[in-house]
Amino acid sequence: MRFERAIYLVKKLLFNKNEQKLKNIDHLCQRINYTFRDQTILFQALKHRSFLTTSGEPRITSNERLELLGDAVLGLVVTEYLYKNYPKEEEGGLTTLKSLLVSRKSLSTIAREFGLGEYLFLSDAEANAGGRNRSSILADAVEAIIGAIYLDGGLEQASQFIHMHIIDHLEDFLAQGIMKNYKSILLEYCQGASMSGPTYVVKDEKGPDHDKTFIIAVHVNGDNVGLGQGHTKKLAEQRAAKEALLTMNLLD
Fold this sequence. Notes:
single chain, 252 residues, mainly alpha, Ribonuclease iii, N-terminal Endonuclease Domain, Chain A, Double Stranded RNA Binding Domain, 2 domains, three-stranded antiparallel β-sheet
């Protein structure tokens, strides 16, 4: 009887904690700008597999299946956007931009913006170990939420979420150097070798304002050592710097 009583108290404690968390779900919906018709789908999207060790649920009830679905939806929406909005980019450039947008670092950055960690269902051990701020857990949860929105509201709603919270951050991600920062590598080398530059010069701009392509040259010691082009100046500069590093045999 004592054992059964202990089990009952543990379950009651977990229920009270999770009931309070569920009450906060409306706050999360406001932050992500989407209200679920079926909140049980959102609940599953927030349920990390570590939580199942305390709840006694099977692993299939965690957010991993939704994560798989969300990853596919995210890839489709991002690829379609890049294909339509970067018509002059070759496959390699589109792949680089896609990798940037769907990377763990980018997704976890987005998750932290709307405080996703505080809403996750984790085991006490995982939470105490810093799980609410772990990039892998946060990124997976974002993908799970995308999968949940897709099931609850369809592709259009999932696409709106992806555009608002992920795609619209592309310029910020580029500016923050989340992708490999060839400009910084080139600058550090030039400073260390007492070389003048690098200096970036816009050589040409093509296309209408909503679809410009920038061609930028980078000069070191007065010489043109790299040329890059892209849909934004930042991207063109990164590519020019990369070409310069290759020309100077500083990259494999």
